[in-house]
Amino acid sequence: MLRRRLNRWFGGEDRRVDSRTIYVGHRPCPANEVFIPPKFCDNRIVSSKYTVWNFLPKNLFEQFRRIANFYFLIIFLVQVRASFVCMPTQTVISDIIFFKIRTSWLPLVFLTVLICSQGYEDWLRHKADNEVNKYRVTVLEDGRRIQKESEKIKVGDVLEVDEDETFPCDLILLQSSRDDGTCFVTTASLDGESNHKTHYTVPDTERDVESLNATIECEQPQPDLYKFVGRMHIYKNNEEPTLRSLGPENLLLKGATLKNTQSICGVAVYTGMETKMALNYQGKSQKRSVVEKSINAFLLVYLCILVSKALVCTTLKYVWQSKPGQDEPWYNEKTLKEKETNRYLNMFTDFLSFMVLFNFIIPVSMYVTVEMQKFLGSFFISWDKDFFDSEIEEGALVNTSDLNEELGQVEYVFTDKTGTLTQNNMEFIECCIDGHQYKYRDASSEVDGFCVTDGPMNTVQQKAGREREELFLRALCLCHTVQVKESTEGFIASSPDEIALVQGAMRYGFTFLGLESKTMKILNRTNDVEMYELLHVLNFDPVRRRMSVIVRSISGETLLFCKGADSSIFPRVKQEEVEKIRMHVERNATDGYRTLCVAYKHLTPEEYDQVDSGLREARLALQDREEKLMAVYNQVETGMNLIGATAVEDRLQEEAAETMEALQGAGIKVWVLTGDKMETAKSTCYACRLFKRNTELLELTVRTLEYPGKRREDRLHDLLLEYHKKTVQDAPPAKTRVARNWSSQDFGFIVDGATLSMVLNSSSENNLHDYKDLFLQICQNCTSVLCCRMAPLQKAQIVKMVKNSKGSPITLSVGDGANDVSMILEAHVGIGIKGKEGRQAVRNSDYAIPKLKHLKKLLLAHGHLYYVRIAHLVQYFFYKNLCFILPQFLYQFFCGCSQQPLYDAAYLTMYNICFTSMPILAYSLFEQHISIEMLLENATLYRQIGKNAMLRWGPFLYWTLLGVFHGLVFFFGVWFLFSNPALQDNGQAFGNWSYGTIVFTILVFTVTLKLALDTRHWTWINHFVIWGSLAFYVFFSFFWGGVIWPFLRQQRLYFVFANMLSSVSAWLVIIVLILLSLLPEILYVVLRKLFLFNFNQKSVKGIFCHFSGLSNVFASRWKSLVVFILFFGVFFIFFLFFYCV
């Protein structure tokens, strides 16, 4: 015994690397040894992001990582600083700062509200964690049952859990209230499956748990839900310890719920953040849309322009003052304080003053408008009546409004299967016995309801023999792991298709009565009870893709019944029997049904004894247990007789297939990530039309890696190279690919969780890099990808791998269960389905919808419109602010760079807040450049805005050049007018404030009318805000200049606006310059309608998306020509009249 412990401590063949030793009940083993309790983490769960101490610094750091927030903070501090250092002569700048400071704090207020809301959300997470951690559990200590808080559970504690309770940590099952030593659990919160799974107690531990002396040696915590390796040493008196192997069938996972079992006892092996549930939890991170990233890039460009302007003007100012007599003219002598001020300090102060003067080029109000647009726009999703589901009486839910526009940029959709694509409601459809098809049509208990031929060997209306029919139905009643519910009528099983098969047998008169003490009972159609002794269950696994049972009848006959996939059964039966069934199976698989073949075999006593000893020996093996079991399974499951096949349907969600087709038509690639078996998931993909009849399936699973004479790693590498050649190297160029496909040949890719672990966790770093690149390229060149037997964390890893791939594609994850939370949080956009698996997915999602079918409208309609609206909003804001500040910059060349503003301080402040903000906000909320019906009918329209088409550098350059052009027209057009000094009837000349007011008036009308031309969907709100904004500007100008305001030190605009409008020349120049500014764009659209009516718009969609509004105005070529002639005629008359005057 000492030698064994030394081997375990210092090495030896029995020692497992990276393992932990657990003392059951904290009792030393053997009892005379000194017990040193090992240290493990406690059972506290922490899902919160902040603490009281780190909330403020951590949250502020996250907020100011955003360029815009950091800029607003800096510019606010600059303005505050500049307000203290302005010279007495800089009264105009002081007034600008006075107004500017009172508006620059608005984004900081929004930021404060955001910080408070995030703090409240984290407080709710703390509250939820506290509820879980303070939950009372029953712990067995020294023969007593003690109530403890869940967070105080330690590794090694023995716990008692009652029916319908959730396991507080990962437990090894020691005792069950059921006589057969089993218990049933549901793992909906872990893998999305609501079916009952069977778990088994460890032998020799059931009777006296409270006095059990045992140690458990198991692997360190890891996130794979379907893998667990361990062993238990059971000590009895002074005898040699009994060794029992432990597997996933003995492990009860935290988050699972005990069902159909009164109570169980188990020992804690993993606690707290080391449980498999916690290891599969993906922390919630702050998501940022691609539009926000584009805004940050544009902001940097305009920030560089702002700094450049300030540097140029500061330099020119001191160049100007270096000339004799310019630094201190006779009319503006310096004060003593100004003369004593350091020259470099003056230069820095002037630079800050220019920054304040020109910082209007950075649209501070744009960020406020964007937040308002996102917040208000999200209500349109919640209010959409098409999203209302009458069954649950709920509609769509928006948890995050920051990602509305991201719905229009999705390139990959990752969807769960169970409860998302399907209803998780298996139904028996039909069966085939010896080539004869049987469909159930009535409630008859005999197999004579409906029979047609399904093969060339049969004649019309011929049926299989009665003996074969009963043998087939007995196989369905015996070959399964179904249990009968004790309290109510019905069945429970780990797989829903097993229940469907048992229920299908009931329709034809064979009823499974249950399993009692290893005896299976069947009620046949003559109401006689047949009893079979269950000898062995050969469980299903993804490599064999079949399961078997060995039973013994009362007459002593030993039978093996086997069911599984056709590719797994056909090679193991007599080949002359295969052709009878093959056509039936292929047809049902094409229809999207889950097909299983059924076979049987008579075992002689010698054969059974050999199998029995082989199975017992393999199940006690400590090393290579799975391989030894596999060898015995393969040995006995040969030479079988094929009876027939079944077809089971997992009903799809309403319009699931149509939704998947629409998404693929929109250029979105759909990946199915599920924890279900490959056969079931593949059938669902066929039913959803993700896989089609001509789709070539590429399989990368544990089964395909099994190749004689090759290591799995070598076989994996060979398969990756082979598939890469097919999908990537031999694929035609992207331009030649058809609309539905991404390659000339449809490829579907299937991968399972075990193989994915090999790809993502290769032992060699070089191989890891190669494997991941090859794997990703193969996936991206397939029309659809199916990932089965996925753990929740693996789902998130798949999403992260695609999200971080070349091009940074936008990803969306949709699911309905707690097992989907990780991938929902990992994707750019997370969608929760309000299904039957609880509301954890809904709570952690960005958007929640009642059914999968609503995803089509959410993306193709709402997402499309949201993106177009906000993209136009962003480009328009930068454009109108460039139009606004460029004349101000040009004016400095005419005033000696003296920081003299062109516009009054009130105009500077009101421009973005009142005069031009409401029209673009209304546009961004109500614009529909294409009707919703058209967007849903033509999914390909979604592709035209993909890859951030409207916020690329091309459109940004166009809008920038347009702003420069308009700014030059405004400034120099008015400058040309002022070349005539006498512009009023009384012969008086206009001053500099009149000059700026005329420029500002042209500016406000031009940018507003530009937006009106871009509007295609007019509502009364659009009319009200557009024409109301122009009317408000005129009213405000009269009102502001018509009253003497006591709080102003200088009344610069007193009656300036009224005097300006008294001049006919001013009226003419305003009208002419507005028409001249809008003329090029209208001219372009007219010419395009006239001469390029059939031009392929796809080639210019990225750069000229902003012309969509004008295209609606000029609906036909002749109408365009008439409008253009009228517009040009009016412009020519005004220009001629202005020239004559």
From TrEMBL:
PROSITE patterns recorded: ATPASE_E1_E2
Enzyme class label: translocase
Annotated binding of Mg(2+), by residue: D416, T418, D816, D820
Domain P-type ATPase A: 133-276
Keywords annotated in UniProt: ATP-binding, Cell membrane, Endoplasmic reticulum, Endosome, Lipid transport, Magnesium, Membrane, Metal-binding, Nucleotide-binding, Phosphoprotein, Translocase, Transmembrane, Transmembrane helix, Transport
EC number from the UniProt entry: 7.6.2.1
Coiled coil: none
Entry-linked InterPro entries: ATPase_P-typ_cyto_dom_N (IPR023299), ATPase_P-typ_P_site (IPR018303), ATPase_P-typ_TM_dom_sf (IPR023298), ATPase_P-typ_transduc_dom_A_sf (IPR008250), ATPase_P-type_domA (IPR059000), HAD-like_sf (IPR036412), HAD_sf (IPR023214), P-type_ATPase_IV (IPR006539)
Subcellular location: Cell membrane; Early endosome; Endoplasmic reticulum membrane; Membrane
Domain P-type ATPase N-terminal: 38-81
This protein's name: Phospholipid-transporting ATPase
